[in-house]
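Table 4 source record.
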Amino acid sequence: MRITGRRFPLRALITGIGGFVGYHLSEYLLNHTDLEVWGLDLVEGRAAKLRPRINLQVGDFLLDLPALKKIFATCKPDYVFHLAAQAFVPVSWSDPWSTLENNIHGQLNVLLAAVDSAALDRGSEAEGIPRVLVVGSADEYGMVRPDELPIRETNLLRPNSPYAVSKVAQDMLGYQYYASHHLPVVRVRPFNHIGPGQSPSFVTSDFAKQIAEAEAGLRQPLMSVGNLEACRDFSDVRDIVHGYFLAISQGEPGEVYNLGSERSHSIAEVLEMLVSASSIQMKVEPDPARLRPSDTPDIVADCGKFRARTGWRADIPLKQSLYDILDYWRSEVKQWQRKH
């Protein structure tokens, strides 16, 4: 897809480009658009593999506003995908303030830098203002009642974790800067997204890693699990990053959109799919340490608003996503074995 606009090539700035979603987004933009991709990351991690196709800036820029403003002034981004965040819910319970500070302060600085950038080199107003994608979370909805499913964007927000509170704040900051500074902010609330390369801190990757290690003889064929009854709306990250691009390029500034598969699956179903793909028999054992203080029983998205605007739909089947995750961890385990 070729993008036309005020300058060619247009520039995309991705915060957290070396993270799970940031890396997949950068690959999507490089392979499917003509955007010039810039990225920010704390360390020289996996995003370094994309050099020289991207301009990678390494450092703690998000909590250093003067440094972040310099990046914006140099890059002059047309699109800003703000993905960098503390995204693991249990960490927000053990250290709430670090999650709140990291996610809210980082979001605020991105918005301030975007406003500052829009005031610098101005030909026409349209040329100067970057479009900003604020990434919230389905966790913002919190304790959803059964009669409220599927969840629409108009549903009440009842955040039930410090992480969820931080995402509500990011979401509302985005709207505030749209309303008060006319910054073209588009907000999204993605539901659970999974795929190759995700941290084993997250459930599907955790299960797949345990299976791959057991198949390789590195651990007993014993699967430690938390709450298997919770039901979640799982999408493939490769569908989600396509949605992010459509949101920032076609979404209505000031609006918020759900992104999800619009189907609900229990964690038990996910586990069964993964175990069925294993080459060995796995025994399942509950682990109380994996339970959360507060857990919503069922979550499923209504993405009709976003589909009406962009035509987007999550297409990759859950089983395919899970098999790809398992193959990823098999490959990672083999690489580890060769080194050791």
